[in-house]
Write a structure and sequence with these properties.
Length: 301
């Protein structure tokens, strides 16, 4: 099995954990605060990881170049905007629709990867990506009433547009991060990914911290007061980000983000096995489609 596959699955699991904690914090901190803790509390963990790679495992410390700095900054800004929009979706009563659209990220990542890096996706992989996205949409809309008003909202409503915008920013950030990491060639894949992560996360912390200090100081203070819970968001977020950065250094972004859809399967397994929640048939169908897409990407691409 290629190394990027288990790394991506592990990253998806960590992201699932981080998202659950972030949703909980949103009720206490609001959208900006819940977005900030992902980056601000993640920097120390990312920095320690780089030091361990350098001091314990002997990976050379990279020297960032212009491509690293520009691509990492653009990726950081795009991820902030994507995260902000995704968390903002939770404010809508019909947020499931927007969340479904936000999962079109693999398609948009494939487009950005082609435009920026000249990367191509095979026809078989493209079909698998579409099958996986169909599964995500089936799950996201499983409990939405199929009325004309609901369908109209699904197509052109504000949550749908926010979800699409969120996916676009996440797709762009993934390609930018891959660009930044690849620019550090010669220091080892693990260090390339880790160094790009530290730079991007530090940049995000400075940008968001400065903006919140200016516009929403009460949110910044609340984020600092909630450190006991926020530190776990940062730790799980960095664990997932290490996986994403490493996988995207090794493989085409579109494949990585498509495989990452397995995160939703983890979500439903936890809901079913641990919380004993009832799963409807359409949600099971969605999980089957996602698993089929994942298997196809691994075996047939």
């Amino acid at each position: 099995m290629e190394l990027w596959i288990p790394i991506t699955v592990g990253a998806a699991f960590c992201q699932n954990l981080r998202t659950a904690m972030q949703k909980h914090l949103k009720g206490k901190l609001g959208t900006s605060g819940a977005t900030f803790v992902r980056f601000g509390y993640g920097v120390p963990f990312a920095a320690v990881y780089v030091l361990v790679l350098n001091q314990v495992f002997g990976f050379p410390m990279p020297v960032p170049n212009a491509t690293t700095l520009v691509a990492g900054a653009l990726g950081g800004l795009a991820q902030i905007l994507g995260t902000f929009l995704l968390i903002h979706l939770f404010s809508f009563r019909n947020f499931a629709v927007g969340t479904a659209y936000s999962k079109t990220e693999p398609i948009q990542a494939a487009l950005f990867g082609f435009l920026v890096l000249g990367e191509h996706v095979s026809a078989v992989a493209a079909v698998c990506i579409l099958v996986g996205i169909a599964g995500v949409i089936v799950i996201s809309l499983a409990r939405v009433p199929l009325t004309l008003a609901a369908i109209r909202t699904s197509l052109v409503g504000r949550p749908a547009l926010i979800g699409l915008a969120s996916a676009a920013f996440f797709g762009a950030s993934a390609v930018a991060y891959r660009t930044a990491s690849l620019s550090l060639e010669g220091t080892g894949v693990a260090m390339q990914a880790a160094f790009a992560l530290v730079y991007a996360t530090s940049f995000q912390t400075v940008v968001m911290g400065s903006w919140m200090a200016w516009r929403e100081p009460e949110q910044l203070r609340a984020s600092l007061k909630a450190w006991r819970a926020a530190v776990w968001v940062g730790a799980s977020g960095v664990a997932g980000s290490i996986g994403w950065f490493t996988a995207m250094t090794l493989q085409n972004v579109a494949y990585v983000r498509a495989l990452a859809q397995i995160e939703l399967v983890f979500t439903f397994l936890v809901s079913w096995l641990i919380f004993k929640e009832v799963i409807v048939r359409s949600e099971i169908l969605g999980c089957v489609l996602i698993v089929a897409a994942v298997v196809g990407i691994i075996l047939l691409r």
